[in-house]
# Entry
Amino acid sequence: MLCFLSSMGLSEWLLVVVLVLLLFGAPRIPQLMKGMGQGIKEFKKGLKDEPGTEAGTGTATEVKKDTATPETTDNK
# Structure
């Protein structure tokens, strides 16, 4: 899937780093990496939780469906 990354040389990696610095700026990169790390952490946490449980609590949440049927009207 990411086999093209292994074929990149030093000059290509330097070009990528320079482009990222130009696009986002040096002060913003740590914020982006922090946000990406938090997103990955939340994703992994969501994978570990069982389906039907509330995230982070481990307690099951009930889903209540509206069982009322809509009233029909007679148009006579």
The mean pLDDT is 76.
